[in-house]
Amino acid sequence: MIARLARRTGILAASVLAASIVVFVFTSVLPGDPAQVALGVNATPELLARTRQEFGIDRPLITQYLDWMGGVLTGDFGRSYVTRDVIGPQLADRLGVTLWLVGAGMLVAVLIAVPLGTLAAARHRKPSGAVISGASQLGIAVPAFLAGILLVQVFAVRLQWLPAGGWTPPAQNPGEFLRGLVLPALSLGLVQGAVLTRYVRSSVLDVLGEDYLRTARSKGLMPGRALWRHGLRNAAVPVVTVLGLQLTTLLVGAVVVERVFVLPGLGSMLLDAVAARDLLTVQGIVLVLVVGVLLVNYLVDVLYAVLDPRLRGPA
Which residues belong to any copy of the ABC transmembrane type-1 domain (predicted)? Predict the structure, then answer.
């Protein structure tokens, strides 16, 4: 188990290094001059040269990368080319908003998918199972942003139960924070819950046909109890893979949902930075998102070994 964990940690570190190089190179070769964007089209050549020197973009790419990564490792993402504000603290604040949104969305998805997927598998030959399967298929076809708009129309505009957007920090007002998080979390979680329900149903169906579960039932256990005691742990292994993929999808989906609900998260920050051609800020945000995806995959791999003892040996 320790050897497997050490190997996966080494792979994670190498992947982060490779991702940082790719992100830096792609943002560096994009057309456009950050100094020109910061100063405007009427800037003189002398002022442009001084600004490029101030930004450090007149140096070789390898030097720029090493300086940037050296700063990233200490939490220093540099200063915005456009606003000249320090990027690191902004990233930390925006990341907190996005993590609340993604975490709440995943919680909604799991709370929907696990019971409904299990019920759909247990009653797959009955009308109730068919209704759940049909509803999940319909949910998969609905984009998260459209779900958000529909939720706002119903619960914010017509019923006026919840706010249509905005963000209140949890330390400032926990009640308003939760009210403002409900609709964004539902718009992410309902769609991802529909996808996850299909995988839970398929995984539980596979387990229901296993010999050990039939043996447990033949010894007198009720079907539901036999599934709870002997089947769900095995059914969870393939579902964990999908959960990892769903988390990465939620990170991407949060970019649009944050715009719909006017949330100050990483997604909104990224779109604003792209619109302003603030490449250093874009670089930092993309790196944080990529590292987040790699960390999710790493944790999923570790969770495999927890769920399946056969994977605890040398990998």
Answer: 95-300
3-state secondary structure at position 124: coil
Sign of the Cα pseudo-torsion (209, 213, 219, 224, in order): negative
With H, G, I as helix, E, B as strand and everything else as coil, classify residue 168.
coil
Contact of 300 with 21, CB cutoff 8 Å: no
Question: In the chain, what are the domains?
Answer: 1-82+281-315 (no CATH), 93-275 (1.10.3720.10)
Pair 82, 37: CB distance under 8 Å: yes
CA gap 133, 194 in Å, rounded: 9
User: What would the DSSP string read from start to end of 42-60?
Assistant: T--HHHHHHHHHHHTTTS-
Distance in angstroms (rounded) separating the CA atoms of residues 137 and 158: 27
Q: Which long-range contacts (CB under 8 A, 24 or more apart) does 235-238 make?
A: 235/200, 235/203, 235/204, 235/206, 235/207, 236/203, 236/307, 237/304, 237/307, 237/308, 238/199, 238/203
- For 221-241, what is each residue's pLDDT tens digit? 555 555 555 556 666 666 667
Distance between CA atoms of residues 299 and 307, nearest Å? 12
Could you tell me how far CA 61 lies from the centroid of its own chain?
A: 30
Burial of 203 (0-12, 13-18, 19+ CB in 10 A): buried
Tokens of 152: 């706002």
- pLDDT tens across 159-214, in order? 888 888 888 888 888 988 999 999 999 988 888 888 888 888 887 777 765 655 55
| Residue with token string 């209704």 | 131
Answering whether pTM is above 0.90, one says no
Query: What confidence score (pLDDT) does residue 315 get?
Result: 47
Query: For 207, which DSSP code?
Result: H
User: What b-and-e string marks burial along 231-254, b requiring 16 or more CB atoms within 10 Å of the CB?
Assistant: bbebbbeebbbbbbbbbbbbbebb
The tokens for 240 are 């964990």
